[in-house]
Each structure stands twice: as structure tokens, then as C-alpha cells.
Design brief:
247 residues; alpha/beta; Nucleotidyltransferase, domain 5; five-stranded mixed β-sheet; 11 helices; 50% helix; disordered N terminus
Length: 247
């Protein structure tokens, strides 16, 4: 028997219900909560815009056009980013990481910060694949707030990143890079190395954060089919929000 709009596919045991209720309460405008819910569900269910149009009547009771959903997808991405910031709470201890993403005929790079205390993604950024991890962290720092410690690998080691993090009230604890062959560390590098050794016990907890980062990587890698970076960039905050709603 085929489904009709009278069939309710949302029940108390379905994670879709949590996402729809969240959108109903926190969407920027009352008239847009249904479209906001569809955007989050697209990322969570990993479906195409065409399939989302077909599912929409059974989930939120409307059937917007593919173009309407796509325009909303791009327009509400900033709202999703801001909601992730509002949900941050205390930074405490977090891990910063990055990974490559292969899409349809394109590659992107995913940068993220994962909280070890709250066990969720705090913020995420999508860039071109050749962007350095250091520049990716600078972009993430704009959306981080509060006192806390950022644990990172050697790709984030440097005095400039340390100072940029400090301006956001964050302590960057990065594993030191190896000194140049036959050379010596600079004064600031030796000081950061001393800091790393003092906080080595905290750095070991980075492995805990790797699992959290892996969940987002696993959900995104090989599963995004975009040719525009704007569309891929919108996918990640929606997906991070969905992971918070259904955990």
C-alpha cells in the first residue's frame, strides 16, 4: 500500500521527530520552520533534493519545489551555524581536526572542533582542499567563545595561531613540530614545547576526541554530492545540528 500524506511517519521512537520539533521551536521565522526541518533532515538522511521533495508531505505536511528547498538550504545555513554557537556552552577541553571530503567530481576539506566534555561538534567549516589547517583554524576561531583548551596536532603548531587562540580566551595545546634538520628551535618554539610537555596528559585525551571527529567524517565522507562549495558548506552545520538532536 503506497504512502499518502495522511500517513504519519513521525513517532516517538523516530529521530525525525526530534529534528522537526527543534526546527519548529528555533527556526528564524514561524513560517520557515518546516523548510528548516527539511534542510536538517536532508543532511541527516543523506537524500537528494528530489527525494526530499517527495518525502516532505509525509514529514511536515507541505510539498515545496526543489528550487524553494535549495534556496532555503543556502539561506538558512548561517542560522544553523549560529545555532551551533548558541549550543556551545562552556568550551572546557576540545579537539580541532580536519579531513578531506570527496564529492561528485570535486574535493573539499572539512575543519571541525569537537568538545570532549559535551561530546559533540562545536563548529565546522568547509574549504577548498588546498587550504592549510592553520587558516582553517582561524576561520573556526571566529565562531568559538569562552574559556577553554584546544588540543591539536603538529599542523597547528605556531606562535601566530597560539596568539590568535589566546585572543578568543582559548589555550592552544599543539604537538611541536620537529626542528629543521641541523637547526635549533626559536625562542617561542621552545616555550610552546615546554607548554606542551606540561600539558601532555591533556594532549593524550585527543584520542577521545578523534572518535567524535570520526563520526562527522564518517557521516560526510563519500556521502556528499555537491559541485559548489556553498552547498557542501551548508551541509555540515545542518548535519552537526542533527547529530546533536538525535544523540
Amino acid at each position: 500500500m503506497p504512502l499518502t500524506p495522511s500517513h504519519n511517519i513521525i513517532d516517538n521512537s523516530n529521530p525525525i521527530k526530534a529534528i522537526v520539533q527543534y526546527a519548529r521551536e528555533y527556526a528564524p521565522k514561524y513560517q520557515e520552520w518546516k523548510l528548516a526541518a527539511l534542510c536538517i533532515l536532508k543532511a541527516y538522511l543523506n537524500v537528494s533534493f528530489d527525494k526530499l521533495v517527495a518525502l516532505a508531505p509525509y514529514i511536515v505536511g507541505i510539498k515545496p519545489s526543489k528550487a524553494t528547498i535549495y534556496r532555503t538550504w543556502l539561506r538558512l545555513a548561517k542560522w544553523a551555524e549560529q545555532d551551533l554557537v548558541e549550543l556551545q556552552g562552556s568550551m572546557d577541553l576540545a579537539v580541532v581536526d580536519s579531513t578531506g571530503i570527496r564529492s561528485w567530481r570535486r574535493r573539499f576539506k572539512l575543519h571541525m572542533v569537537y568538545s570532549l566534555e559535551e561530546k559533540r561538534v562545536l563548529t565546522v567549516e568547509v574549504t577548498e582542499p588546498n587550504l592549510s589547517d592553520a587558516k582553517g583554524l582561524r576561520m573556526l576561531l571566529k565562531r568559538l567563545r569562552g574559556l577553554g583548551i584546544l588540543v591539536a596536532d603538529a599542523a597547528y603548531f605556531g606562535i601566530n595561531l597560539f596568539k590568535a587562540s589566546a585572543r578568543r580566551d582559548l589555550l592552544l595545546l599543539a604537538r611541536p613540530r620537529k626542528p629543521p634538520r641541523g637547526g635549533r628551535r626559536s625562542c617561542w618554539a621552545r616555550k610552546l614545547e615546554i607548554l606542551y610537555k606540561a600539558g601532555r596528559a591533556l594532549y593524550r585525551r585527543r584520542k577521545e576526541g578523534e572518535r567524535g571527529c570520526f563520526l562527522l567524517k564518517y557521516s560526510a565522507r563519500w556521502r556528499v554530492f555537491y559541485t559548489r562549495i556553498e552547498s557542501c558548506h551548508a551541509h555540515m552545520p545542518y548535519l552537526a545540528l542533527a547529530m546533536v538532536m538525535v544523540r
